[in-house]
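S1.2 Input.
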Amino acid sequence: MPETIRSFLSLAAPVTRHPSLITCLLCLLLWAVAGSSAAQPRDNAITLYAAYRDGGSFIDATTGNKLPIEASGAGAISLDLGIDASRQLQLFVSRQSSQISVEQAGAPSGAVPGTLPLKVTYMHVGGTSFLEGRIGRGAYVVGGLGATLFEPGSEGFENELRASMNLGIGYQLPLGERMALRIEARGYATLVNSSGGLFCSGGCTISIKGDTMTQGEVQVGLSFRY
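S1.3 Output.
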């Protein structure tokens, strides 16, 4: 198990650069490992996903304009630990590099808006439940609770961490004894709860606010069972 944990953390390196998330990740992982003692051989898996994410927006607190997050590709990884014949605990990380359109301060009316680079990372603990019985084949439902890390890539803005959740459905097709193809669709909801000044650490050219942010994601993954 220690080798599996090290592999998972190395693949989730963008998240582990943040000390508060490292602590949370390790606590959730230890809890998941402790709950998987009843698992059968090869009911555990690591899955790597390629994804496409859309949706999500904020509000310009000054003008009231909507500031959408541009749709883009994403990458994800999950560690699934069997707890019985049809269910797994899941530790899940998904990361998107995108941007939001923002009106430049002092720009003439109708000017082309600027952009604010933004990385959005979800880190959740939850589970999967296979609807047709045995782990590793057929349709399943998935979900989790955890945190969303927003990382704006511009001077004068700072990272923000907010509580979030995900729900989804998927289908797993075995490709052999140890490998399988996963196809999933997930929805994310993040409690932003900001009335202005989101991401601002001083010198911001725009005041951003938001309540609840939602996004949707489709994923294709290659799962390795052990």
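S1.4 Remarks. The beta strands are 45-54, 57-60, 66-68, 72-82, 87-102, 114-130, 138-152, 160-174, 179-194, 208-225.
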